[in-house]
Amino acid sequence: MRERNEPLAGFTVGVTAARRAEEFGALLERRGATVLHAPALRTVPLADDGELRAATRDVIRSAPDVVVATTAVGFRGWTEAADGWGLGDELSTALRGAELLARGPKAKGAVRAAGLTETWSPASESMDEVLGRLLAEGVTGRRIALQLHGEPVPGFIEPLRAAGAEVVPVPVYRWTDPEDIAPLDRLLDTTLARGLDALTFTSAPAATSLLGRARRRGLLPELLGALREDVLVACVGPVTARPLRALGVESVHPERFRLAPLVQLLCHELPARTPVLTIDGHRVEIRGHAVIVDDEPCRVPPAPMALLHTLARRPGRVVSRTELLRALPGGGTDEHAVETAVARLRTALGAPGLVQTVVKRGYRLALDPAAGAGHTDS
């Protein structure tokens, strides 16, 4: 019997995260998923960078009215860099007199670890809520220091400046391509081949990086087609989703912008999108690379799985050998390959009657007359 704690059995999930990827992958695997990990970027600290030092001196020289801490690692990196330059006490003094907004619990923890106290932190952990609060308070003539997390926060700085604020960006680290680009290329190729059931993003720069890599390889239209039509895109929050949404790619995200809720969301969304058929008296749930027959998972090799997906698009109807041949990975020229794949499919499913041979025409799933395709929300 399929374990209740493995709702992702049979699904393949792509992980683009650079930080906490091992933790994220373990959460997915514990629920039965096959994980394909390829960091889409890496972070480069700017502790020795003149831009960060200049921004720090600017904040010390003219103390801000408001400081926005966007990430724990970024805020901590800023204060540690200032300590290394002998500017730690001066920076603390400048920050202590400001209205200090922390985007979420982790940023709040980093603020307190620096001996400071946040004025406010949004329950939603959303930069949009932080922006709304500032604009509601009024920012005309106010000086706002914004700790960046790799790139300018889209849709945040511009409205503040338009409302009359002086915004001082503080770039603590920047994103760049991973040192080894090969895993990212493999993830991209697997996505294009529809080898993934879901692709996850935990930061907007990761999404931007994957899109950029696809563009440089001349594959962006194909990638967008896969993400719009076949591969579920799951982001940790709406800010992460912005680069994708700008190109017409819709995504899902949890109410709480955390890894565990993101995993729980996948545990609901992927099974809910999975066809469930009653075939030859059996309940059959067809997943990415596995099939659940009467609650028993069946591992199916790639070629038979490709045939099953093709047959399941028209359950109960005959699919010709020619069409099934085209569906085989890499295609083929010999219809005998279809017969071999069908035989392997019947063996893998453990129920030969699920796939019927229609003489001189092809094959079909033995869909029960009173049954149809459905979806499970279990």
Shape-level CATH architecture of the largest domain: 3-Layer(aba) Sandwich
**Structural class by helix and strand composition:** alpha/beta
Runs in which pLDDT lies below 50 for 5 or more consecutive residues are: 372-378
CATH fold type of the largest domain: Rossmann fold
- Count structural domains: 3
**What is the 3D shape?**
elongated
According to DSSP, the number of beta strands is 16
How are the strands of the largest sheet arranged? 3-7-6-4-5
The average pLDDT score comes to 89
Tally of alpha and pi helices: 15
List the helices and strands and how they pair.
Layout: E1 12-15, H1 21-30, E2 34-37, E3 42-45, H2 50-61, E4 66-69, H3 72-84, H4 88-96, E5 99-102, H5 105-113, H6 127-137, E6 143-150, H7 157-162, E7 166-176, H8 182-192, E8 198-201, H9 204-216, H10 220-229, E9 232-235, H11 238-245, H12 259-272, E10 275-279, E11 282-286, E12 290-293, E13 296-299, H13 302-312, H14 321-327, H15 336-349, E14 355-358, E15 362-365, E16 374-375
Parallel strand pairs: 1-2, 1-8, 4-5, 4-6, 6-7, 8-9
Antiparallel strand pairs: 3-7, 10-11, 10-16, 11-12, 12-13, 14-15
Helix pairs in contact: 2-4, 3-4, 3-5, 9-11, 13-15
